[in-house]
Amino acid sequence: MIITVASGKGGTGKTTVAVSLALSMAPAQQDSTDKKSVNPANPLFLDCDVEEPNAALFLKPAIKERREVGQLIPEVDFDKCTYCGRCAEVCQYHAIAVVPQRVLVFPELCHGCGSCTLNCPEKAIHEVLHVTGTIERGWAGPVEFAQGTMNVGEPMAVPIIRQLKQWVIPPRPGDRPIILDAPPGTACPVVESMRGADFVLLVTEPTPFGLHDLRLAVEVARDELGLPVGVVVNRDGVGDRGVDDYCAAKDIPILMRIPLDRRIAEAYSEGTPLVEALPEYRGRFADLWRRIAGSKE
Ligand code: SF4
Ligand code: SF4
Q1: pTM exceeding 0.85
Q2: Who lines ligand 1 at CB under 6 A?
Q3: Distance from the alpha carbon of residue 249 to the mean position of ligand 1, in angstroms
Q4: How remote is the CA of residue 88 from the centroid of ligand 2, in Å?
Q5: Is the CB of residue 204 less than 8 Å from the CB of residue 8?
């Protein structure tokens, strides 16, 4: 079962919840560094916040494999090119331009669609990989871990998230707990992190800002993608009843409440997962998973 943990904005405790959920689902500590030992009880955790991945600070995985990722962009063979301009005509993204005796490619605009290569009458274009980031996988105790990291200055996170998912999520995940920690916000990288999920868990805080961003996240997850959603209210008790009233009106279940607690903030600042700092939360997160899994049946 694939669950995406998301929030309309950063700083709501999304990664705290995602990491604690994964650790609470894991079987008793075991060394799972041998890939052959993967079994359906080992949760798989993906940090999809490729612009600023930080779950590794808490899970402290041992990385076993790393790949460069990116997208194919055109490269022109000037011995064959006649500067006819056809490639620029077919490019919808203005990523290739033909000027006298030159063809210019703008990798940051290119979507890797391949149209220019297909349409070049001289077969003067071949594609080369433009590296935009890395994807990595390994183990954090009994939790299989994977993350993507986008290179500084690159504009497109979606291809990295897509390749990360394709690399590590099995085609038929069955009941294996798979948890995706989405980027903050509601833009395309978040949509890509939600695509294919069975459930979206939205972490918010009970303030007007939290409510504003929760509404946007619900619009994307439930209204656009048609996915079931549930809410975790973090720092419960700090604000007003706006989130509660909104969830009641929209028939969105509030599945868990985490009170404002100085010990949680201290654990976060030290890179200690919530369920390790406060083990009494382990059962609560396991129960959260059961409620989510139950909602699917
Ligand atoms: S379509 Fe091919 S031949 Fe024409 S300008 Fe582009 S690269 Fe050169
Ligand atoms: S691959 Fe597609 S987006 Fe990139 S330059 Fe060619 S036509 Fe344009």
Answers
A1: yes
A2: 76, 81-87, 98, 103, 120, 122, 124-125
A3: 58
A4: 8
A5: yes
Question: The domain 2-68+137-296 is classified under which CATH number: 3.30.420.10, 3.40.50.300, 3.30.43.10, 3.30.450.20?
Answer: 3.40.50.300
- Ligand 1 centroid to 87 CA: how many Å? 6
Fold of 78-123: Alpha-Beta Plaits (3.30.70)
Radius of gyration from C-alpha coordinates of the chain: 22
Amino acid identity for residue 10 in this structure: G
Interval 20-78: pLDDT, tens? 999 998 876 555 555 555 667 799 999 999 999 999 999 999 999 999 999 899 999 99
Decide: 10 and 184 in contact? Cβ < 8 Å: yes
The SS3 call for residue 126 is strand
Query: Does residue 206 have a pLDDT over 90?
Result: yes
Q: Which of ligand 1's atoms lies nearest the C-alpha of 80?
A: 3
30-44, 163-177, 198-212, 249-263, range with the lowest pLDDT: 30-44
